[in-house]
Specification:
Elements lengths: L15 H7 L9 E8 L6 E2 L7 E3 L1 H13 L4 E7 L16 H13 L4 E6 L12 E4 L7 E4 H18 L3 E4 L6 H11 L7 E7 L6 H6 L19 H13 L3 E5 L5 H10 L4 E4 L2 H12 L5 H15 L3 E3 L3 H8 L1
Helix pairs in contact: 2-3, 4-5, 7-8
Bound molecules: ligand PBG.
The site of ligand PBG has 10 residues, from loops.
Length: about 325
């Protein structure tokens, strides 16, 4: 008998064709969702310096980008509005003529039924203080205020109705207020929108990786969101948030960010009876771009590997700024 192992996993790695055949995880354009920023008053798209290759769209450039994504089989787009004027309660969010609602109507008309038009349901792009909810003065807090959970829910209800009436096909609740899914569900059901589905950003962490997004939406936030977004130290709490959103009626739940939270994503995929999505956020994109621009990593391989890892950890679909590019690669 010759020496050496009889069991050799390398047999299945020997050729590209064999590796392709035994791959456990595949990426598909239909499972990719493109986040898009639409800025009020723009006539030309405007680059976002911390996210090379990503822009703030004008309405026209948004429509063109949606048509392109649709033609490549991308599953959906997630719209974020960047308004010209902000105030304490985020009035622009509930104004039917506010940029996000205007963009939604234009996006739905452009997309037809080629992809799912989704909208960010959160106040932070619309408030002058940059928080995801409305504030209440509080002497008990070092900042002199707290983000008022239940008053914010009232605004979310109104925002949900405005978005449903603008034609949004999936509302992405990203504000991390307790009870937000139940509140918006109830508001939609009471106003003739029982068929509008809700995506709960269920396990959303207070992350440094949202940094470039702040530039993308010209956020006016000072301080942080640690009193409502989750502590990065907590894994068990991610499961709790996912289960709560499911109980409240979320049709889909999300884990965010993605790559630093693959354990939470895996947990969510284990327990959730509804689809689980992940968001590869702005800082994850920026890190790949910066390292690649320096010649320190192979950009395309890093993009595919990062998205494959998110899929492998349990994401049924992924929001990624690479959606259109990867859909083209996969063709
Ligand atoms: C809140 C929201 C944020 C992101 C998506 N929705 C910012 C935040 O919570 O601070 C971040 C997305 C990204 O970084 O790509 N409306």
């Amino acid at each position: 008998m010759m020496g050496g192992p009889s069991i050799r996993p390398r047999r299945l790695r020997a050729t590209p064709a064999m590796r392709r055949l035994v791959a456990e995880t595949r990426l598909l354009p239909a499972e990719l969702i493109l986040p898009m920023f639409v800025r009020e008053g723009l006539t030309e798209p405007m680059p976002i310096s911390s996210m090379p290759g990503v822009v703030q769209h004008s309405l026209d450039s948004m429509k063109a980008a949606i048509a392109e994504a649709a033609s490549l089989g991308v599953g959906g787009v997630m719209l974020f509005g960047v308004p010209e004027h902000k105030d304490g309660v985020g009035s622009g969010a509930t104004d039917p003529d506010g940029i996000l609602n205007v963009a939604t109507r234009a996006a739905v008309a452009e997309a037809g039924d080629a992809l799912v038009v989704q909208t960010d349901l959160c106040l932070d792009e619309f408030t002058d203080h940059g928080h995801c909810g409305v504030l209440r003065a509080s002497s008990a807090s070092a900042t002199g205020y707290v983000v008022d959970n239940d008053a914010s829910l009232e605004r979310y209800r109104e925002m949900g109705i405005a978005q449903a009436e603008a034609g949004s096909q999936l509302l992405g609740l990203s504000g991390m207020m307790d009870g937000q899914v139940a509140a918006v569900r109830e508001a939609l059901d009471a106003t003739g929108h029982p068929d509008t589905p809700l995506l709960g950003y269920a396990a959303k962490y207070a992350s440094a990786f949202y940094g470039p997004f702040r530039e993308a939406v010209q956020s006016s936030l000072e301080g942080d969101r640690r009193t409502y977004q989750q502590d990065p130290a907590n894994r068990r709490e991610g499961i709790r948030e996912v289960l709560l959103d499911v109980e409240e009626g979320a049709d889909i739940v999300m884990v965010k960010p993605a790559m630093s939270y693959l354990d939470v994503l895996s947990d969510a995929a284990d327990v959730s009876p509804v689809p689980v999505w992940a968001y590869q956020v702005s800082g994850e994109y920026a890190m790949i771009e910066a390292a690649a621009a320096n010649g320190w990593i192979d950009r395309q391989r890093a993009v595919i590997e990062s998205l494959t890892s998110i899929r492998r950890a349990g994401a049924d679909a992924t929001l990624t700024y690479y959606a259109t590019e990867v859909a083209r690669l996969l063709r």
